[in-house]
Amino acid sequence: MTNQALGRAAGIERGVVPIKTEQEIARALTSTSSQKVSEKIIGYFLLACGTLSIFTTIGIVFILFNEAIKFFADESFIDFLTGTEWTALFGSPQFGVLALVSGTFTIAILAMLVAIPIGLLCAIFLSEYAPPGVRAILKPIMELLAGIPTIVFGYFALTFLTPSIIRKLFDGAGVFNKFSAAIAVGIMIIPLVASLSEDALNAVPRALREGAYGLGATKMETTLKVVVPSALSGIVASFVLAISRAFGETMIVVVASGSKAWWNWDPLQQGQTMTGYMVQAFSGDVTRGGVVYESLFAVGLLLFLITFVLNIISNLIVNKFREAYE
Question: What CATH number was assigned to the domain covering residues 78-321?
Answer without folding.
Answer: 1.10.3720.10
